[in-house]
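Q:
My hope is that you can spare some time for a protein that puzzles me. I hope you can help me see how the letters and the tokens relate. Thank you; the sequence and its tokens follow:
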Amino acid sequence: MTTATRASAGGGVQSVERVFDILELMASAGGAIGVSELADRAGLPLPTIHRLIRTLVDRGYVRQLPTRRYALGPKLIRLGDSATQLIGSWSRPHLSDLVERTGETANMAVLDGNMAVYVAQVPSPHSMRMFTEVGRRVFPHCTGVGKALLLQLSNETVRSLVTRTGMPSYTENSITDPETLIADLEVSRRRGYAIDEGEQEIGVRCFAVPVPNAPTPTAVSISGPAARVTVESADEISPLLQRVALELGTEFDKDAAL
């Protein structure tokens, strides 16, 4: 549905809806985008796109590149940081419940452009535990939570994403071929959860699932030493992950309804 169609169907303010649609289209482009392409994707006349883009540039939410294409601007970073802190705050009780029930570290991440970004974490009480700094950006092809993010994309989109980022190898278990990754994701879809089998760090295993109803691809995971987080433990951990993911999805749904 184009911007114009949505505006006529809903009760929102048309110009505000158009601005947010433009920002979302620019974000989904994964980089710079020209006004003609933006107008085509948004279903809006070029003069309208020019007017809205100029306002966003003047406010710092969009920047014009030397190529005369446009990209998201630096002022969005502050908004994103504030949103990340809020997400971390309300997700913490849910992640804490996972830690209490599994004894291992719980994480939440979102897909930001081409990378997975950790937005919340509750660490395991064990002295030997996994720790990832909130805000860390990782390649999605070699982490459990990253794969759970990719599960929410079409295979064609996944191929395009890894073509842009490359598929660096971190361990002998890292997947470095797009078609092998696609096959792994298909298995994960049938199974109901993604697995990182020491692909980012040797000796670490991670189970992860997508969070439904999130405004951007979001996932939660449990990670720990492979000696404790065994393959067999998935039978116990994956239902817990699915339950918490549904609870988090309900939280997103509440925000969307406001």
Notes: The CA atoms of residues 95 and 237 lie 13 Å apart. The chain has two domains: 3-73, 77-257. DSSP finds nine helices and eight strands in the chain. Confidence is low (pLDDT under 50) at residues 1-11.
